[in-house]
Give the backbone structure.
Amino acid sequence: MRIVHVANFHGQESGGFATTMRHLGAGYRRAGHDFFLIVPGTQSSRQQTPYGTVITIATLPGRLRTTSLIPVEVTVRRILSDLEPGRLEVSDRLTLRRLGTWAKRHSVPAILVVHNRPSDWLMRPSAAAVGTPTGHINRERTSTRGALRDFSSVVCTTAATRDRYEHILPGQVGVVPLGVDLETFSPHRWSADARRAYLKENTVLIVHAGRFTADKSPVRVIDTLRELRRRGVDARLVMAGAGPLRARLERAARDLPVDFVGQIDEPRDLATLLACADVVVSAGPRNTFSVSWLEALASGSPVVASAGSAAGELLSHSAGELAGDSGLEFADAVVRILDRRIADRRADAREVAAGYPWSRTVDLMLAAHWLTPTTSVVRTSRITA
């Protein structure tokens, strides 16, 4: 079977998406399927990779050094017609929704893969009359819902997101959690030399690994360190990542022990940093299921995340803490973790991550495509294992 995945936004900071595609594609190929990935880029290309064929379509750059397929949807449909996929996946909740209509017209079962909550305007009832000033919004909302229904099913990465989409598309929504490479990300990556190099003269190592963008709230991580040090915690922060807020973060951290190490592309290097951390902080209040959470937990490092995120579906025992959206509350959560025995919190973190191998994600996606005997789970909109 030929499986084609189309993703609307793609850029230098989309590390979690790239990781997911590598593992999904490799898993599909091991199961005997061909995998094609269509993404936007600065120039068109077709590249053979160990996990499948990557087709890049040249388009204009958008915000955050990403590129978008919106202006070239006609080109996407032409490529899809040439590829003749047996199954289609679309990573985008709104802007490529018409690909579901294309798939339905060509009798291709298609899955909409959503990594975010539905937009507020999509959730609100469309009660206003078409002739009112808000009529064009309601027409668009109705059109969007209709287009989403053209997909065979919708896959979310968390139960919380599934429940919100279930109100829009009852009976069509399931959950496929993302996974983690449990061999690369492991407590065994801990290194006394690496930890000393990161810590320097300090004693507690806090790590943030993610994009420096407003939705990830990295400024709150700086606020957390400031509050910890005000309380006498001898902590140093390592910020791994890239994004448009870096200059602002550097200004905010001028008087603090913070190291900006850039985006770490080599997985083993990132795994070593995460394994050496005492706590990994992820402050984005709207984060859904994050590969970075799993990578930290698999490395034996507990996570502090926003209570507004979906991290509560992962964190249990002493594997992590949820915090309100302020540096003070995040600092409280970090202190609670530091008060626990190191061996306990590292073991609990690893135990949680061990339940999310990439092989499980691949199996559940194939079930969602009705390519395995577990079709019934999808049709009852309960894809979770």
About this structure: Residues 51 and 102 are 26 Å apart (CA to CA). Residues 126-132, 373-385 have pLDDT under 50 and may be disordered. The domain at 187-353 is CATH 3.40.50.2000 (Rossmann fold).
